[in-house]
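RETRY 2/3 - previous attempt timed out on the joint model. Re-submitting the same 573-residue input unchanged.
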Amino acid sequence: MNVPADRKYTKEHEWVLLDDGVATVGISDYAQDALGDVVFVDLPSEGAALAKGAEAAAIESTKAAAGIYAVVTGKITEVNPALVDKPELVNSDCYGEGWIYKITVDNAAELDELMDAGAYEQFLAGLNE
Amino acid sequence: MPFIPHTDEQVAEMLAAIGVADIDELFADIPPELRCDGLRLPAGLSEQQTLAHMAHLAGQNATDLTLFVGGGFYDHYTPAAVEAIVSRSEFYTAYTPYQPEISQGTLQAIYEYQSAMCRLTDMEVANASMYDGGTALYEAVMMALRVTGRNRVIVDEGVSPIYRTMLRSYTTNLGIDLAETPTAGGLADRGRIAAELNDGTAAVVATNPNFFGCLDDLTDLADAAHARGALLIVSAYPISLGLVKTPGAMGADIVTGEGQSLGLPLSFGGPYLGFMTARAEHVRKMPGRICGRTVDANGREGFVLTLQAREQHIRREKATSNICTNQSLCALTSLVYLSLLGKGGLVALAQLCADKAHYAHERLTAIRGVSRRFGGRWFFNEFVLELPTPARVVINRLLEKRIAAGFPLARYYEDMDNCLLLAVTEKRTKEDIDRLAAALEVSL
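RETRY 2/3 succeeded.
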């Protein structure tokens, strides 16, 4: 499983890339693989204010529907328009063009609760036991 | 497959295997205030006693009446060819088409049914059908709540009182704000609805023709709802759509209705057919099965159940509904019926119903003391008569002459003791109508 070291991760398999107070969020290689072919992404509305852990989006594959959560408390600034016509980007490029939403970071302390790549890899190893 | 009940020993073994003390524990997720405190059932009957009881009940049914009763369910003629086609074993015994590779016939039939309902109502998408017009209307309300994220629904009292009772029953414990508005002059009261409409309204629910048989153009209601970000839900009578402006043309967002009049017998209440069509933008929030047309890996056209991530076997508690079936055989029946009628046939049928109903209206209002309630409103094949005598008294008198004269509106509406709701279909002959007029005249 690909786990890039340049970003943080959550227990719900979201990755988080911070840039100038705004976090870009997508799902990990492990998650896209488990979901199977993604056919639809129910994106959040731009401007929506979410508390950490609230459901932000939903991903539908041919066999499952999974919630994507707000990784921090903040406001959605942007959602990925490419996913409307090409939801399969979540499978083919989950760390790049398959990004899902961007959110402001209202409480920097919440970032400390995220896992780094090493911790996430250990977390995944634990799941497979 | 035979019925194989569990023995007490088997139940105990299974509970032990999953670490549960007793069966009640498995229902722990249901809040105590929603549980019933036991079922009060009478003692069981033997097979002989049961058969005698059922025969006694069946004996109280009258199957020889000349029917002028409507109220949402109509005595239309079903050509013999419908049953002949539908009772073919390939259709009659087919099960749920979850495996598309062995169910292409069933799936194609469902897809064509969906297409037919879209054309009938002038809408863009349809589901594979629901139980009946009433539950379909409830599902439309829930869909509107999902689409808008709001909690308030306005229901015109011209909508069938039977359906409104169902709406209240189904939504009782869901914390939904259901506001019913009285009619004015036999139609939906625009003023009252406007007063109730606000930015928390998910939908306005209306029907055309309404329960009184009155025809209305709901376009302005659609506009009023849309101006506030709400949806218009319309419950429709399929046969009327051969003649009357469609809900789609009026701007409805979701259309539901009872498909019984499309080739299904009245059968004392069922099985019936709920149809639902909607605007394409809302398809992901639709409940029920949806059949789609696609191509396989070799480029050949085929049919599959699609958008299944809406349904509970995938979405679980976030599913659009807990319905996991459809009325396949009834939907097929309606498709066969519509195919045999054809577009021209449906128009001719609707015209026939309207003509006969207007003839009946002419004959009956010529009787001294009988007038039309809501006179001045257009009607399709159903209308309300104001009699000099309570309607249920007149109905009982006419029953003795083997005529079911209509529906007593006082059962559901206040100040309508003398009002009789009367429907006429293509099955009623001129002689039937003349006989009704003669009998009514001496029964007042």
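Strands of chain A lie at 8-9, 14-19, 22-27, 38-42, 49-50, 55-61, 65-69, 74-79, 101-104. Closing ticket.
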